[in-house]
Amino acid sequence: RSRPLGYRPAAGHTTVPPYAPGLPLLRATFTKAPGDCGAFLVMPLSAALLVVLTFTLGVQVSGRATGALAALLTASSPTIVFMTLWPMSDVPAAAFWVMLLVMAPRSRSSMSAALSGIAAGVAILIRPNLVPLAAVLGASVAWPRPDQSVRDRMRSFVVFSVPIVVACLAIAWINQTLFGSPLASGYGATG
Predict the structure, then answer these.
(1) How far apart are the C-alpha atoms of 118 and 126, rounded to whole Å?
(2) What residues have CB less than 8 Å from 105, skipping those under 6 apart?
(3) Predicted TM-score (pTM) of this structure
(4) CA atoms within 13 A on the CB side of 4
(5) Binning pLDDT at 50, 70 and 90, where does residue 107 land?
(6) E strand or H helix at 113, and its extent?
(7) pLDDT digit string, tens, across residues 163-180
C-alpha cells in the first residue's frame, strides 16, 4: 500500500507526517465535511483566504490601492500559485499568519481577541517554529489604548493566549504520542 507524499511508517501499521500536525489536521477536518475530496479543497481555499486577507492588511496599512496591489501580487506570485497545487503547509500557514496580522491589532473585545488567538493557534499548529511571532502580536493585543482599561487589555491578552497555549500543548501531546517525546518531531529529536 502506498503512503501519501512526505509520510512515514509508524507503530500500529499507520503512517504519520514528519512535519507539524496542523496541515494534516486541517485536511482531515475538510475530509469529514464534504468527503474524501474535501482534503483537496484546503490548498485553493487557503490561497483564496491569503489573497483576501492580504488585501485587507494592505487596506489597513495604506489604503485600497495598496490592498489591491498587494492582493494582485500575492495572487499572481509564481510561488503561491505553485504551492497551491501541492499539499504543502506554506500557503495555509501564510493565510493564518496574515489573518492574525489583520485581526490582532484590532482586538478591542474579548471575542476579537479570542478569534485572533484561534488564528494564531491554527497557524502555530501548522508552523510551530513561528511561535515568537505570536508573542510579538500578543503584545499588540495587550498594548494599552486610551479607549480601554488595563484590566480589559489584560483580559483580551489572556483570551488571546489560551488558544496559543492549547495549540502548543496539542503539538507536545501529538509529538509525545507519535515520536516518544514532546520535544521530538518526525524529523528527530530537537537536539
Answers:
(1) 12
(2) 60, 140
(3) 0.84
(4) 13
(5) low
(6) helix 110-126
(7) 999 999 999 998 888 877
